[in-house]
Design a protein that fits this description.
Radius of gyration: 32 Å
Order of helices and strands: EEEEEHHHEHHEHEHE
Strand content: 15-25%
Largest sheet: 5 strands, antiparallel
Helix content: 25-40%
Number of helices: 7
Strand order of the largest sheet: 4-3-2-1-5
Structural class: alpha+beta
Shape: rod-shaped
Length: 186
Protein backbone atom coordinates (compact mmCIF):
# COMPACT_ATOMS: atom_id res chain seq x y z
CA UNK A 1 0.00 0.00 0.00
CA UNK A 2 1.25 3.45 -0.81
CA UNK A 3 1.35 5.86 2.10
CA UNK A 4 2.00 9.58 1.92
CA UNK A 5 2.87 12.17 4.54
CA UNK A 6 -0.42 13.61 5.80
CA UNK A 7 -2.48 10.42 5.32
CA UNK A 8 -4.76 9.49 8.21
CA UNK A 9 -4.06 5.90 9.25
CA UNK A 10 -5.23 3.26 11.70
CA UNK A 11 -2.86 0.88 13.51
CA UNK A 12 -3.77 -2.78 13.08
CA UNK A 13 -4.32 -4.80 16.30
CA UNK A 14 -4.21 -1.61 18.42
CA UNK A 15 -6.64 1.16 19.19
CA UNK A 16 -4.49 3.92 17.68
CA UNK A 17 -4.95 6.23 14.76
CA UNK A 18 -2.95 9.17 13.58
CA UNK A 19 -1.50 11.19 10.76
CA UNK A 20 1.68 10.15 8.93
CA UNK A 21 4.50 12.62 9.66
CA UNK A 22 7.63 10.80 8.38
CA UNK A 23 8.17 7.91 5.96
CA UNK A 24 11.63 6.35 5.94
CA UNK A 25 12.02 3.03 4.09
CA UNK A 26 9.48 0.67 5.68
CA UNK A 27 9.17 2.67 8.93
CA UNK A 28 6.34 5.13 9.15
CA UNK A 29 6.13 7.68 11.96
CA UNK A 30 2.63 8.75 12.88
CA UNK A 31 1.42 11.46 15.22
CA UNK A 32 -1.45 10.29 17.42
CA UNK A 33 -4.42 12.44 18.37
CA UNK A 34 -2.63 13.07 21.69
CA UNK A 35 0.46 14.40 19.92
CA UNK A 36 2.74 11.36 20.43
CA UNK A 37 5.06 10.27 17.62
CA UNK A 38 5.07 6.47 17.14
CA UNK A 39 6.95 4.31 14.62
CA UNK A 40 5.29 1.42 12.79
CA UNK A 41 6.10 -0.89 9.91
CA UNK A 42 4.00 -0.18 6.79
CA UNK A 43 2.24 -3.56 7.12
CA UNK A 44 0.95 -2.52 10.57
CA UNK A 45 -1.00 0.45 9.19
CA UNK A 46 -4.01 1.03 6.95
CA UNK A 47 -5.29 4.26 5.45
CA UNK A 48 -8.24 5.71 7.30
CA UNK A 49 -11.14 6.20 4.91
CA UNK A 50 -14.28 4.14 4.68
CA UNK A 51 -14.81 0.67 6.15
CA UNK A 52 -14.63 -0.77 2.65
CA UNK A 53 -11.26 0.82 1.81
CA UNK A 54 -9.81 -0.31 5.18
CA UNK A 55 -10.79 -3.91 4.52
CA UNK A 56 -9.46 -3.77 0.96
CA UNK A 57 -6.14 -2.25 2.07
CA UNK A 58 -5.75 -4.77 4.85
CA UNK A 59 -6.61 -7.82 2.79
CA UNK A 60 -4.50 -6.71 -0.16
CA UNK A 61 -1.41 -6.99 2.08
CA UNK A 62 -2.38 -10.29 3.68
CA UNK A 63 -4.46 -13.24 2.71
CA UNK A 64 -7.33 -14.31 4.91
CA UNK A 65 -5.54 -17.61 5.62
CA UNK A 66 -2.48 -15.72 6.90
CA UNK A 67 -4.61 -13.62 9.24
CA UNK A 68 -6.48 -16.65 10.58
CA UNK A 69 -3.27 -18.65 11.11
CA UNK A 70 -1.68 -15.73 12.99
CA UNK A 71 -4.69 -15.45 15.26
CA UNK A 72 -4.93 -19.22 15.87
CA UNK A 73 -1.21 -19.81 16.49
CA UNK A 74 -0.72 -19.77 20.25
CA UNK A 75 1.88 -17.30 21.43
CA UNK A 76 4.72 -18.92 23.33
CA UNK A 77 4.87 -17.68 26.85
CA UNK A 78 8.33 -16.93 28.10
CA UNK A 79 9.14 -19.04 31.12
CA UNK A 80 10.10 -16.88 34.05
CA UNK A 81 12.01 -18.41 36.90
CA UNK A 82 10.43 -17.70 40.20
CA UNK A 83 12.51 -15.76 42.68
CA UNK A 84 12.50 -18.76 45.00
CA UNK A 85 13.84 -21.08 42.26
CA UNK A 86 16.64 -18.67 41.34
CA UNK A 87 18.17 -19.16 44.75
CA UNK A 88 17.76 -22.93 44.83
CA UNK A 89 21.03 -24.86 44.87
CA UNK A 90 22.15 -26.17 41.52
CA UNK A 91 23.96 -29.19 42.94
CA UNK A 92 23.25 -31.65 45.75
CA UNK A 93 25.76 -34.10 47.20
CA UNK A 94 24.47 -36.88 49.47
CA UNK A 95 27.29 -37.91 51.79
CA UNK A 96 25.44 -40.79 53.45
CA UNK A 97 27.81 -43.74 53.24
CA UNK A 98 25.24 -46.01 51.57
CA UNK A 99 25.17 -43.45 48.69
CA UNK A 100 28.95 -43.59 48.30
CA UNK A 101 29.70 -47.34 48.47
CA UNK A 102 27.71 -50.50 47.81
CA UNK A 103 28.30 -51.83 51.29
CA UNK A 104 30.17 -50.20 54.18
CA UNK A 105 30.92 -53.64 55.69
CA UNK A 106 34.48 -53.87 56.93
CA UNK A 107 34.97 -50.08 56.94
CA UNK A 108 35.92 -48.39 60.19
CA UNK A 109 34.29 -45.14 61.26
CA UNK A 110 37.54 -43.40 60.33
CA UNK A 111 37.46 -44.92 56.81
CA UNK A 112 33.85 -43.86 56.35
CA UNK A 113 34.51 -40.28 57.53
CA UNK A 114 37.61 -40.02 55.32
CA UNK A 115 35.66 -41.18 52.25
CA UNK A 116 32.84 -38.72 52.99
CA UNK A 117 35.26 -35.79 53.44
CA UNK A 118 37.23 -36.70 50.30
CA UNK A 119 33.97 -36.86 48.34
CA UNK A 120 32.89 -33.48 49.72
CA UNK A 121 36.25 -31.89 48.85
CA UNK A 122 36.23 -33.34 45.31
CA UNK A 123 32.64 -32.18 44.71
CA UNK A 124 33.39 -28.71 46.09
CA UNK A 125 36.42 -28.32 43.82
CA UNK A 126 34.42 -29.69 40.88
CA UNK A 127 31.75 -27.06 41.52
CA UNK A 128 34.41 -24.35 41.69
CA UNK A 129 35.94 -25.48 38.40
CA UNK A 130 32.51 -25.53 36.71
CA UNK A 131 31.54 -22.18 38.27
CA UNK A 132 28.58 -23.69 40.10
CA UNK A 133 27.66 -21.25 42.87
CA UNK A 134 25.55 -23.30 45.26
CA UNK A 135 25.86 -26.84 46.57
CA UNK A 136 23.99 -28.63 49.30
CA UNK A 137 25.90 -31.31 51.17
CA UNK A 138 23.47 -33.74 52.77
CA UNK A 139 25.27 -35.20 55.77
CA UNK A 140 22.46 -36.33 58.04
CA UNK A 141 22.14 -35.65 61.75
CA UNK A 142 23.90 -38.49 63.59
CA UNK A 143 26.34 -37.34 66.25
CA UNK A 144 27.38 -34.28 64.23
CA UNK A 145 30.97 -35.41 63.56
CA UNK A 146 30.68 -35.18 59.76
CA UNK A 147 29.02 -31.77 59.97
CA UNK A 148 31.85 -30.40 62.13
CA UNK A 149 34.50 -31.89 59.82
CA UNK A 150 32.74 -30.37 56.79
CA UNK A 151 32.77 -26.97 58.47
CA UNK A 152 36.55 -27.30 59.01
CA UNK A 153 36.91 -28.23 55.32
CA UNK A 154 34.79 -25.32 54.07
CA UNK A 155 36.57 -22.85 56.38
CA UNK A 156 39.85 -23.57 54.52
CA UNK A 157 38.47 -21.83 51.45
CA UNK A 158 38.32 -18.03 51.46
CA UNK A 159 35.83 -17.99 48.57
CA UNK A 160 33.20 -20.08 50.37
CA UNK A 161 30.34 -19.22 52.69
CA UNK A 162 28.36 -22.04 54.32
CA UNK A 163 25.23 -22.27 56.41
CA UNK A 164 22.40 -24.66 57.28
CA UNK A 165 20.42 -25.59 54.17
CA UNK A 166 16.69 -24.98 53.75
CA UNK A 167 15.07 -26.65 56.75
CA UNK A 168 11.76 -27.34 54.98
CA UNK A 169 13.51 -29.20 52.19
CA UNK A 170 16.41 -30.92 53.97
CA UNK A 171 15.67 -30.85 57.69
CA UNK A 172 18.63 -30.34 60.02
CA UNK A 173 21.05 -32.69 58.24
CA UNK A 174 22.31 -30.54 55.38
CA UNK A 175 24.72 -27.66 54.81
CA UNK A 176 24.49 -25.25 51.90
CA UNK A 177 27.68 -23.85 50.44
CA UNK A 178 27.85 -20.64 48.41
CA UNK A 179 30.96 -20.24 46.26
CA UNK A 180 32.21 -16.76 45.38
CA UNK A 181 33.49 -17.17 41.84
CA UNK A 182 36.23 -14.50 41.83
CA UNK A 183 38.46 -15.71 44.68
CA UNK A 184 40.88 -18.65 44.81
CA UNK A 185 41.17 -21.31 47.57
CA UNK A 186 43.69 -20.80 50.41
Amino acid sequence: MDFNVGDSVLVLDEDFSGVIKIIKDNVITIETEDGFLLDYQSNELVKKKTDKSIKQAFFSNMSIKTVISEKETPKRKQQKTKAKERYEPTMEVDLHINQLVKSPKGMSNHDILTLQLDTARRQLEFAMSKRIQKIVFIHGVGEGVLKVELEYLFARYNNVKFYDANYQKYGVGATEVYIYQNAEPN
